[in-house]
């Protein structure tokens, strides 16, 4: 195949088949390119895009061929009068304009289809990756295309914001730009799933997930935004494991009322352990905290008091500040808990039992739900 080179792009001569002949006819008849001729040029533009030829070199080759053929076009010969030559030139230029427009339209159509296919392939890969429903060997092979090497350990960070995120959400774009600007070509995958923003990075790059958390909170203004980070796990199945841990941490934060902006699954391992045997946990809550239901106003206020007291490190002044009470009122409530349950929050051994029961109550949503 003969090729001509414009810049660094080789443009095959086949893309210009019939072009000069069409210009020759246009120069003598003044007609515009026919619909089928323009459709053929669109198809050529689409083919060029699929085969990796640049649009600028392609258009440049068309214009070069036009310039080369111009003096020899029948309508441009010296035998024609000045008016006829001018009219022929205008007809040829209109035809060239329509041909270039058709080629560009076909090229853009191919690019749009390629972008859509790439987006569909990426979404399919992410779904398979985060649901763990694909053959692991095939998943690892596909992952390289999207910048991941699944043979090593990875960690997943998941952000939940005040609204649902998708791939074109301004927060997604801003975080993606920040990560790219900061870490460049590192093997990091940023995506969305279920309205949440997800960042997957190798386990030795803690700075990536920490920066991801910072940028998400900055992009959302920190309002009702929380990020959870799963533990690192190896292999193709490690990503979905870490992702599920991060989701679990977000759900735990909602259930327990945890207010930390960034949650690390490794710091929350006690909660899955406690909830593993729900019947035993329910029995603990009923036995230890059940008598609080006898209090005026129910168990809720006293349970909130215990929660704040333990969360503040058993410092009465801080606990009172957290729930908007005076220290005297808080002390009265703690004494009331002691009288009803027989367990003293100030006693180290009894405090452990009470605190475990309070955690269990939050996990089981007691007293809102019957045990």
Automatic annotation (TrEMBL):
InterPro entries (alphabetical): CdaR-like_regulators, CdaR_GGDEF, PucR_C-HTH_dom, PucR_C-HTH_sf
One matching Pfam family: GGDEF_2
Domain (CdaR GGDEF-like): residue spans on this chain: 132-252
Source taxon at top rank: Bacteria
All residue ranges annotated as the PucR C-terminal helix-turn-helix domain in the record: 302-358
Family to which this protein belongs: Belongs to the CdaR family.
Identification of the protein by name: Helix-turn-helix domain-containing protein
Organism: Streptomyces thermolineatus
């Amino acid at each position: 195949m003969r090729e001509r080179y414009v810049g660094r792009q080789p443009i095959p001569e086949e893309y210009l088949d019939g072009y000069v002949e069409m210009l020759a006819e246009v120069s003598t008849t003044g007609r515009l390119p026919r619909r089928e001729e323009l459709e053929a040029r669109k198809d050529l533009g689409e083919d060029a895009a699929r085969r990796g030829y640049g649009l600028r070199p392609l258009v440049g080759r068309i214009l070069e061929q036009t310039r080369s053929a111009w003096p020899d076009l029948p309508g441009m010969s010296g035998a024609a009068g000045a008016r006829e030559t001018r009219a022929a030139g205008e007809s040829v230029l209109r035809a060239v304009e329509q041909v270039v427009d058709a080629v560009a339209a076909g090229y853009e159509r191919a690019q749009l289809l390629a972008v859509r296919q790439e987006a569909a392939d990426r979404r399919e890969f992410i779904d398979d990756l985060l649901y763990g429903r694909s053959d692991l060997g095939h998943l690892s092979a596909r992952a390289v295309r999207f910048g991941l090497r699944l043979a090593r350990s990875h960690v997943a960070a998941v952000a939940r914001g005040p609204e649902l995120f998708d791939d074109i959400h301004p927060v997604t774009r801003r975080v993606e730009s920040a990560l790219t600007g900061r870490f460049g070509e590192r093997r990091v995958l940023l995506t969305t799933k279920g309205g949440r923003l997800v960042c997957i990075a190798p386990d030795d790059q803690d700075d990536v997930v920490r920066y991801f958390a910072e940028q998400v909170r900055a992009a959302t203004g920190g309002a009702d935004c929380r990020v959870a980070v799963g533990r690192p796990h190896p292999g193709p199945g490690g990503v979905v494991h870490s992702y599920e841990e991060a989701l679990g941490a977000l759900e735990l934060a909602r259930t327990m009322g945890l207010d930390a902006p960034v949650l690390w699954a490794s710091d929350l391992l006690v909660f899955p352990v406690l909830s593993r045997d729900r019947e035993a946990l329910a029995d603990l809550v009923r036995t230890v905290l059940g008598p609080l239901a006898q209090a005026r106003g129910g168990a809720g206020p006293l349970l909130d008091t215990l929660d704040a007291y333990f969360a503040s490190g058993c410092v009465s002044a801080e606990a009172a500040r957290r729930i908007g009470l005076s220290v005297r009122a808080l002390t009265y409530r703690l004494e009331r808990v002691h009288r009803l349950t027989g367990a003293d929050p100030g006693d180290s051994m009894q405090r452990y039992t009470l605190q475990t029961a309070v955690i269990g109550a939050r996990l089981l949503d007691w007293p809102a739900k019957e045990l």
